[in-house]
Amino acid sequence: MQKFMKQNIAVFSVSLLVLGVVLAGPALAMDKMAMHISGQWVRAVPPVSKTTAAFMTIVNKSGQDDALIGAEVEFAGKVEIHNVRKKDGMMEMFKVEEVAIPKGKTATLKPGSFHVMMMGLTSVPTKGETVKVTLVFRNAGKVTVEAEVREGGMGMENGKKMKMKH
Ligand SMILES: [Cu+2]
Q1: pLDDT tens-digit readout, 23-41
Q2: What separation in Å is there between the alpha carbon of 106 and the centre of ligand 1?
């Protein structure tokens, strides 16, 4: 019995080791993945465009309240967190300091709502390409995700043009 147990434990340990190796990549990220990010994408824009935006869903599984307080990308001079509001019948974007994500809650960055605004593009991401977006959380710190560049609407259901205020 004793021997059997030991063998079992040994097998179990090896299994864990193998699992550890297999999961090493994601596992490292998982540490920071107290914030679960999914569905991330960057809007494909014309080559002459100076701005674009990133969208995603963030679930706070960290066990403590957190907030998205910034973001970084290599291809933009400036990155801000924006939201959208209606003003004088027009939709306009404005900068926010953070997107609060209480523990257990989900924040959705989507067209017509919160988004990561990338300005002063030094190279314009092209459709089909994957780009790195680093999100900065107050507590969880930095989390880098790969975001697909694809076409997407502006979230302007009424068809009104967005006033660009950058
Ligand atoms: Cu914006």
Answers
A1: 444 544 454 459 999 999 9
A2: 20
* Domain residue spans of the chain: 1-32, 34-163
Contact at 8 Å (CB) between 79 and 119?
A: yes
Residue among 67, 157, 65 nearest 110 (CA): 157
pLDDT tops 70 at residue 99: yes
Q: Which CATH number describes the domain made up of 34-163?
A: 2.60.40.1890
CA of 83 to the centre of ligand 1 (A): 7
Is residue 8's pLDDT more than 50? yes
Quote the CA–CA distance of 166 and 33 in Å, as a whole number. Answer: 32
74 C-alpha vs ligand 1 centroid, how far in Å? Answer: 18
Distance from Cα 84 to the centre of ligand 1, integer Å? 7
